[in-house]
Amino acid sequence: MAFSITRRAFSAGVGAAALLAGSGAAFAQQAFFRIGTGGTAGTYYPVGGLIANAISATGSSGVKDLVATAVASNGSVANISAIQSGAGEAGFTQSDVAYWAHSGTGLYEGKPKVEDLRLIATLYPETIHLVARADAGIKSVADLKGKRVSLDEPGSGTIVDARLVLAAYGLSEQDVKAEYLKPGPAGEKVQDNSLDAYFFVGGYPTGAIVELAATNNITLVPITGPEADKLLSEQKFFQADTVPEGTYKNVPETKTISVAAQLVTSAKQADDLIYNITKSLYSEDTQKSLQAGHAKGKLITADNAVKSAGIPFHPGAERYYKETGLLK
């Protein structure tokens, strides 16, 4: 499933003619800028659609006949793989996964580094949700032992963080009855009592959890205590976070942790193209659209764009941030 824009939009340089910044030059034929997002029930997909739509609608690149597309995917790892292979021009990823990919550490230990991975912008915090049935008796992460728990699909950033959280509390996948489901199917299994809990990393409020909480008694399990403090000190891409009361029906304020959502691309993409995309992302019209379209859109600001970088900026994005004084 994809969110496609057929008005003025931006496209990757793959198979395209040279892009002249601010010149009004047009491509000889239509080309595409494919943005890998996540599952349709998560946060990446709707926010990615807003970004594709809003950037396209600004028309500020002066380039015609281009198509921006937000593409549903398995998430961070899958999006980086698509960028690496040329199957996508950009994608959403968690800041931890981007760092591991670029440095060849963590999840990418023993694998080739994704040295061409480049940052366009840090977007917003991504909260680690540990959703549980209210009657499952799960008050802390330690209570997951022996429970039926979904860690999300292989290739997602969520599964990586779920494993880190479990390990911080002395648990592994073998200590739980692990399943590997996206938040939509996981919520359905919680609803019919065939699953006790599931992890999901995404900006709150996320649609799948909103829908689940509207008709079922759920709780968010806090990720706190000395175990969480140690995790925060060891993994610098994690930050303390709080889900406010009322974000999900009948769910009180919950302390947890988060990573950052980032928009990344390849160093192979044209500098002028990425410069224009970055500039349009922070135009007045785009900012209004993002703020109106999703709760996390309010956090997609130029000031936040240069935080929690972890990997090098694409030269085109870096040029914009230096012009605006956000980077020196």
From TrEMBL:
Gene3D superfamilies tied to this protein: Periplasmic binding protein-like II (3.40.190.10)
| Pfam families given in the database record | NMT1_3
Q: Which UniProt keywords apply?
A: Signal
Q: Does this entry carry the keyword Cytoplasm? A: no
Q: Extract the SUPFAM superfamilies matched here.
A: Periplasmic binding protein-like II (SSF53850)
Task: Note the InterPro entries from the entry.
Answer: TAT_signal, TRAP_TAXI
**Extent of the signal sequence:** 1-28
Q: Which NCBIfam families match?
A: TRAP_TAXI (TIGR02122)
Please give the PANTHER family that the UniProt record associates with this protein. SLL1037 PROTEIN (PTHR42941)
Name of the protein:
TRAP transporter TAXI family solute receptor
